[in-house]
Design brief:
The radius of gyration is 21 Å and the shape is globular. By secondary structure, the protein is mainly alpha-helical. β1 and β2 form a beta hairpin. The protein is about 60% helix and about 5% strand. It has 9 helices and 5 strands; from the N terminus they run βββββααααααααα. α2 (about 80-100) crosses α9 (about 255-290) and α3 crosses α6 (about 185-210). It has 2 domains: about 15-50, no CATH class; about 65-290, no CATH class. The strands form 2 sheets. Strands 2-1-5 form a 3-stranded antiparallel sheet, with no helix packed on it. A two-stranded antiparallel sheet has the order 3-4. It has helices at about 65, 80-100, 105-130, 145-160, 165-175, 185-210, 215-225, 225-255, 255-290; strands at about 15, 25, 30-35, 40, 50.
Amino acid sequence: MVTTCNNHPALSAAWTCNDCFADFCDSCVVKKDMTYATFELCPTCGGACHPRRYGGMAARDFDFVGSVPKALTYPATPSIFMVLGIMVFVLFFVYLMAATFIFVVFGLLVKLVIYGYFGVYAMSIARTTGLGEDEPPDWPDGSDLRADLGSAILRFFGAMLVPYFPAILLFLGILFGYLSTSVTPFIFIFAIIGSLYAPMSLLAVSMGQTIGAASPHVCFPAIRVCLKDYALAIVFLLGVVLLNWLVSVTITLQIGFIGLLIAESIGFYFMMVQARVMGLLYRAHHEEFNWVV
């Protein structure tokens, strides 16, 4: 059954008010621009609206806890394994170039682009999962370099750097002599806080598609409203990181250089798993987050 707009019965509803639960089309909702996002407001009561993109499934009906373990097999598709295989060959030549000490800078840039490319794909996984998709999205095809490998990569690295910004500032302050080494413990404290903040930062940027969504004003309230599930997600992500490390070390010790390349591809696989989990978290709490996506 298609839900229609309260004011225009001939049009499908695109938004639902969080307060009065009225349904509206795009032309009815009131758009309010903020510094980091645009909010859709109810024309009747002024409450915030959320998009109707979940096939009628309310967030409260979604089993986040039961869905998390399944994320481990989510990226296991032929296309993803093919791309990971190609990446192993590319990294092989990158490491060979770096070993000659002639193309070190070029090799590092190529590796940075590879990490950025997979980061962009991970954000796409988080976004499509959050919007209700259960199949992996298409790979960025590079047809628009500025969008796929430019601004999107910058958003990814920005989303990962913002949570660690205080720790980075303190480190640089010590490095250049502006701060005493006595503040070193605060670097570790802010780094730990940043590690807890980073998954939500990546999710917010993935859904909002703007680096401004990594702001604490967006992420901290979101963490607060889903604290229990977010804590579960953090524990699961830490487990994934540990599993990745154990597998990578074992393969590297057994096969050597080739094992190191395979280990990096496994790391990218687990990056997709982590993105899937954060997308599931959004799917379970999109009504409480009240983000415009």
